Model the fold of this input.
Amino acid sequence: MAKKIYGTAMKTGWILILIGVVGTVAGFNLGGSTGNDGFFALMALGVLLLISGLATVGVYAAMERGLSRALNDSAPLLRFTIPAQDYAPYVAAQAEEIRSANKMSLVIALVFCGLMAVGGPFVVKENGIIYTFTGVGLGLFLIVTAWIITKYRINKLKNSDKEVILTSGSAYVGGQFHVWKLPASFLSEAVYFGAGQYEKSPLAVIRITYNAFTGTLVTPYTILIPVPAGMEEKAKAAVQILQGGVKSAGH
Done:
């Protein structure tokens, strides 16, 4: 299994940083030299993209380090391969979780864009319409980006290896790496369901929910891990260990 799985995300982060720097510098210089407040909207957009790029690079760099530790862990809580016949139902369930989480994040971002588009002309009287165009343009950009990211993650899920690695602070499953032992993340749920107890799954299922802080908001992410026959007792023991690290949103 490859040691690096976030190369594309890291490159995207660096591109956002580059565009953000260019937009910030250009907006500041043009706004200062022309006296046109409209160019400061470009600067604001540049700052937003710069912050987004820095956050993207920082988060995925931390996740790469966490993945490396998980792969090199000599005694993970669980490590197995999901049988091919059990993988398709898992993909369908996890794809729905991905769509739901990405939709929630997109809605929050679009609210901000709407406020910029509607409120901009009232805050800045001269050429305030530029803020409207900026808000609408940024909103369209985020919609397209969210669609691309969702499609990419689901396709990656469908075509990934079927290996599962679960540690006390992370999980690698479906080609995706999840980590909740970060300064801005925490584990909020770890539950074991016996065979037939979780919806229509004929297998036992581990459901893990962790929360990540995105700005001032807390976004929940849910991981479903189907447990192959013969691994049930190990899975129960793993969940008991995870439950010792569960925290509430107030902590």
Q: What stands out?
A: The beta strands are 78-81, 163-166, 170-173, 176-179, 185-193, 204-214, 217-227. DSSP finds five helices and seven strands in the chain.
